[in-house]
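assembly run, all chains below
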Amino acid sequence: MKKIIEGSMAVAEAIRVCRPHVISAYPITPQTHIVENLSQFVADGKLKSEFVNVESEFGAASVVLGASATGARTFSCTTSQGLLLMLEVLYNIAGLRFPVVIVVANRAVSAPINIWCDHQDAVTARDTGWIQLWAEDNQEVYDMCLQAYRIGENPEVSLPVMVNFDGFILTHAFEPVELIEQKDADKFLPPYKPVQYLTTKNPLTFGLLVDPEYYTETRYRLQKAMEDSKKVIEDVAFEFKKKFGRYSGGLVEKYRLDDAETAVISMGSVTGTIKDVVDNFRDEGKNVGVLKIRTLRPFPKEAIYSALKDVKNIIVMEKSISLGLEGVLSTEIKGCFYGKENQPKISGFIVGLGGRDISKDSVRKTILKAEKELVEAEFVDLKYELIGGKLL
Amino acid sequence: MAKPEGVVAKPGSSKEYKTGSWRTEKPVFKQDKCTDCRICVMVCPDGVIFGSDKKYYADLDYCKGCGICVEECPVDDIEMVVEVR
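ok done. output:
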């Protein structure tokens, strides 16, 4: 059934049919509507979950950690400073191998305080051992929520999954979304069967002190599980497509990349704008395409290399920066080509920080510039009058 | 992760980990002026001081040598001694 709903409602509707036993979250803009909708579902009896109100995001993450330890399916949702406050617990959830799912309504981080979209929050959490999926539109985030539980709860994976979609740009945008009936969702996502959980019948100790004799191996196994999850992420996306007709997950999405000489790489909603610009270029006879990163962790370096090995120019446009170097994605894309023949020119641009709009005109100029010269960590649409009239 | 990992699957296994190796000084109970007040037993953070009738001792398999018993003994009947291994 197709309905025109807000992005936040799309996430709430997706989580409703996933039937989490426990939801815990703390309200923070622009995530608020998601948890308001979910608590309404619980109050109205449309969703049989325990909704735990907490004093902070640290509390919310700790509640879903504990609930997941008992074998419950769990959900939380946050953004920006809230995600940063969860950070310590995020490492714990991954280390304990609990398949918690959280949705992040991506937002800039303080200071200065800013409630609008960029990707710095989740990119900061990329080393926590969480699988990270990134959605371009509301249909994609809806579909990814269902897939997230299937991926994380796969016994061979047993990892938490973070589903990312752009704050305000998507959370507050109304779009048509194809909704899945409960009975079909149940067929795709059966009840969670945990490999290990807290029960008096078989007492286990979780999260114990591990000395130098064992710690390295726990990290090795996490790394291996991450690597192995790439195949599961793709398998789940294919199975979803077989059931519901949409390939809305997986590792990357290729758009008009056949015979492309220039490829633009991005994540999230800005990809839509870039696709429009690419369509215009194609009409003019220019061979430009787009590679959208759907999975940032595990990083799909093989898929990226195979999609872009014949491209001459790569342009990375990203909404976050590793201060003191460049955009994280730029560095990682360069890594995909290390030691390979025919190295493409790889330029990196920082766009859309703190919710600044990215126009088709800016994208167009950026692509034309990067085709001529190599650019590193250039801030697009920088207002010179605010920084003293010239580049610093 | 097809089977459990990263967990302790049987109770009481911390006893197998002998923390006495962390120690550089050990408490020596002189058993001279002891008044049977049992303060040493109560303040030991690891709960490894045992005994009765003015004869107390630390289980050196687990005593980490923190010296709290020495500090708290009201009659100075315990002393820390550097251990040579």
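Chain B touches chain A at residues 1-9, 11 (CB under 8 Å).

The CA atoms of residues 26 and 65 of chain B lie 5 Å apart.

not gonna interpret more than that til we talk
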